[in-house]
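DM from R.C. (forwarded with permission)

"hey, sorry to bug you on a friday — could you get me a structure for this? deadline for the figure draft is monday and I only need the backbone to look sensible"
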Amino acid sequence: MANALSAAPPAAQPKQNERNEAWLTFWARRPLPILQSTKAALAGFAGRLDTVRSDEIIAAVLRDPLLTAHILRHINQRKRGSLASDVVALESVVLLMGVDAFVGQFARLATVESMLLPKHPARYFALLREVATTRLAARLAKDFSELRYDAHPEEINIAALLGHMPRMLRLLEAGLPDAAPASDLDELPPLFARWSLPEVFSSLLDHRSPSSQRSLLQQAAVRLADKLQMGWWQDGVAADVHLAAHSLEMEQAEVWQLICGALLHFARKDWPYAQIFPPARWLPMLPGEWPRPQAKAAPEAAGKPSFDSLLRELQRAGQGSGTFNQIMNLSIRAQAEGLGMKRIVFGLLMAGHNLLKTRYVVGAADDDPLRSLQVDLTAPHLFTRLMLKPQSIWLKPGNRAQFEALLPRGVRQAVGEGDFVAMSLFVDDKPVGLFYADNHGGPLTEAQYNGFKQVCQLTGQCLTWQAGRLSRGG
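My reply, with the result:
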């Protein structure tokens, strides 16, 4: 009798599997609502489609986990050829659809508020709490990924935003016109598979089989964001801080300081949810002394970014969703604002013509010859040598006699007197152009030359990351 009982399969399990399958089918293609604040932002973009930047649009989308999920499901469920790859990055969706179609289509989605208010305020507040928690998880995961120098931070950010999707969908069900099937499904891989989302999101969030330090850190960030809503003393918080510290090879106190910084940033600058309390409310209960507030920096100093901060902004653009133009603009800004270069030129390699042609110019007058500079690379000269591999030159009084005769035809007259620096720009092992910078006839310093090389090298790395994203369809 005991053997017969132990061998009998549980009767409830098949029925539950059927209910879960019905629930997945129910949500497979059903449009997801968006927050009213997101809809307002998209409406604002619709009024200035000629000037809106893709990074502005993406920043607004990433504040709304439901819209992020809807967009990625929409683009990955499209009909595509066998060679088409999964789309991971939102920037790629904007490129595929175009700004007009992107804004127009997603701005028409219904809002969470229209579904849940005024009849279901408790569910609405609960949903806002889930949104806020996932955004905090995304912030923590992003901070961890930067310390790991993660090559694909956009995957980290989006995976964290999607981490509570089953809970959000169940909260929305009260406002639907038709009843959703009952389900207790809380695992993400089945839902992501039904939505045709890229496998990387499931691998990052599947707690049943964390396959790498990357996924362990990701899941720690998601758990911490969830537990810290109820207080820093909750079970598991210390264990996840220890896990993150071990993975990042940092002291636990340093990791905890990073987490507290993220909580305070959200409470002070990025918590638009007046209906719910931010998790930083529990921090005053920590033992020990609290630092006194520091005086605000003078407006002049606060308004001028440092060279290091500009480099970090350039790196984030390369590792994130920055386009070619955005990366180049940040590179030139680092040279102009961070290093104080007076004239900056980027000559783009016209491969079919073996020619360098001015693409970007900053600081040159309208009649400056640098604006229309073209350098023929078929003849042997200094710039031809520079384009053979990533290398640089600083033309100054000590070497002018040696190198001035090697300048290409027309360049000597265009650049005038004084020092200048130049460096070739490569993406992987392919030359794409050359940066030139000077102080408009004045001398340059060793620090400016070293900083110039640093900016050019980082720009090449950022463009290499960007090219990799495009090749993967991300």
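R.C.: lifesaver. The CA atoms of residues 116 and 175 lie 5 Å apart.
me: no worries. The chain has a mean pLDDT of 87.
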